[in-house]
Design brief:
The protein is mostly helical. It has five helices and no strands. The radius of gyration is 33 Å and the shape is rod-shaped.
Length: 145
């Protein structure tokens, strides 16, 4: 049988050149992150991560505040009874300068009451008496008379 009858033979020079070209092009794939579309996706993922962190803080605060409300619900509604501090829905951490005693709620300024209500995710509208009553309710206390 003649060599011509074997059919077409591969050209290894062309194969080598083609594989080198493919390897060079695959090396450029690392540059894909520089594309605007990819950057938008990464920014979107960053926003999702931020929102998830906020949701996690709210869940942690909600769990902790449920326990605090339960403990506070056994307190006498007036006087020197020590309050279990509520946690911020913004951070999940205890609210700084939270009233230490039940009586401290009644002496709280409207500004301070508004800050605490924002920290616990409660409405901030109304006068000082409404704000104090809302804080008492969120603490798990019975209404003051």
């Amino acid at each position: 049988m003649a060599a011509n009858d074997a059919g077409a033979q591969p050209d290894f020079n062309i194969i080598t050149t083609s594989l080198n070209t493919a390897a060079a092009q695959l090396g450029h794939c690392a540059n894909l992150l520089a594309n605007a579309g990819t950057q938008e996706i990464l920014q979107g993922l960053g926003r999702i991560e931020t929102k998830m962190a906020g949701i996690e803080a709210r869940i942690v605060a909600s769990d902790r505040n449920g326990v605090a409300r339960l403990q506070n619900s056994f307190l006498i509604a007036t006087g020197d009874a020590r309050l279990e501090a509520l946690c911020s829905v913004l951070t999940g951490n205890p609210i700084p300068n939270f009233p230490a005693r039940v009586a401290d709620i009644e002496y709280m300024s409207a500004t301070r009451a508004g800050i605490i209500l924002r920290e616990i995710g409660a409405p901030t509208h109304g006068g000082i008496h409404a704000k104090r009553a809302r804080i008492r309710a969120f603490c798990g206390l019975r209404p003051a008379f």
